[in-house]
Amino acid sequence: MQPINQQGRQKAIHPLQYMHLVDLINRCAVRGESNSAIVTGPHGSGKTMLVSSVLREIESNPKVSKNLLIIRLHGLLQTDDKIAIQEITRQLQLDNVVGDKVFGSFAENLAFLLEALKSGSDTAQSVLFILEEFDLFAHHKNQTLLYNLFDICQSAQTPIAVIGVTRRLDVVELLEKRVKSRFSHRHIHVFNSLAFPAYKEVCKRMLTLPAEVGDAKFVKRWNQDIEALCSNATVHDVLKKTYQLDKSICRLQSLLLLPICKVTEDHPGIEAVDLVESSKHLGADSKAAMLHGISVLQLALVIAMKHLTDLYEGDPFNFEMLYNEYLKFVQRKAHVVQSFEKPVVLKAFEHLVSLEIVKPVDGHGSRSQKEYRAMALLVTSAQLMDVLNTYPGCPSELKHWASNPLPS
């Protein structure tokens, strides 16, 4: 898969957000202006890619890059302020300067690090902090890291820029009052607004080989095949379906991964059928796959739960109600269906709970006995019918029962 020009793609997809970030970082590096901003958007919208593309452009400009240090922190890795300050020290390459010094507070430690960057010069080097999963830093004790970074932004001690990246739109509400008052309240919202023709073009560019890679004849033939592939009606339908489900580039890359991995000497290209197969894998129903692995008894219980859910219009049910429904079916079909004792049926039901095919309903007598605990089915009627049609050796009585509830 070709790593296409990410800067060009981000400029095309998020032009305003791209220029906003470039301007903010340039002003910090060139003019010494401190500032802060939060990049927000849903999962897969391109927040991290946008920031990375901006940084590549910044680093390609010697005038800017020589005066800018970049510190990357991640909320999943730097889980408290002590780990965060150690990581800042490591990335600033100031381990030897800090040595065995003991600091009275986090603020004192951070101020020492930023002061050490001057290295005898009157002008401090600008520092850019990138905080991935920004909302997780808000859960640190007293939000000390965020408070000190935003405080330095306002006090003009050292030119720094702080850019948070998060999917939470309400992230500012997580900040303490003293932290919120020091934040500049710049929000850069990132949403994937790609139209389908542009989405399809991105797909083609991902699969296209650059001219300088490998044998020129092979590259030419490959690119011609990709051009034809992207014009194929079946491929168009697969891409349209994927786009309608999730228009993120991450999803598109996942779709293309399997066909690319299947390219060998014996299978030297990508065909429409490869994308169809990949789409099926990508859209595989995990609940339906789980139902294919359960026993006939458990399948009967799922059918009974479906009828109870339909009968009570989605209201919760309990095991006793389920067992009575199951008994009604067994008694009517005793000549063809094996009957099980209640403890065996309860064990089968508990296994369905562990598979999360059925789950307890919070707030409905959670302290009551397990036989009387309110439960809800997590499988739709459509999923169940699909499984019954493909379940190996499924008794015809079960299929009939699934479509025709027993009379009361």
Automatic annotation (TrEMBL):
Main location: nucleus
Coiled coil: none
UniProt cross-references to SUPFAM superfamilies, sorted A to Z: P-loop containing nucleoside triphosphate hydrolases
GO molecular function, one term: ATP binding
Gene Ontology biological-process entries: DNA replication initiation
Keyword entries, A-Z: ATP-binding, DNA replication, DNA-binding, Nucleotide-binding, Nucleus
Pfam families xrefs: AAA (PF00004), ORC4_C (PF14629)
InterPro entries in the cross-refs: ATPase_AAA_core, ORC4, ORC4_C, P-loop_NTPase
GO cellular component: cytoplasm; nuclear origin of replication recognition complex
The Origin recognition complex subunit 4 C-terminal domain, residue ranges: 201-387
Keyword DNA-binding: yes
Subcellular location: Nucleus
Record-linked Gene3D superfamilies: P-loop containing nucleotide triphosphate hydrolases
DNA-binding found in the keyword field: yes
Segments forming domain ATPase AAA-type core: 38-185
Top-level taxon of the source organism: Eukaryota
Protein family per UniProt: Belongs to the ORC4 family.
Function: Component of the origin recognition complex (ORC) that binds origins of replication.
PANTHER family, per the entry: ORIGIN RECOGNITION COMPLEX SUBUNIT 4
Name the UniProt record assigns to this protein: Origin recognition complex subunit 4
Lineage of the organism: Eukaryota, Metazoa, Echinodermata, Eleutherozoa, Asterozoa
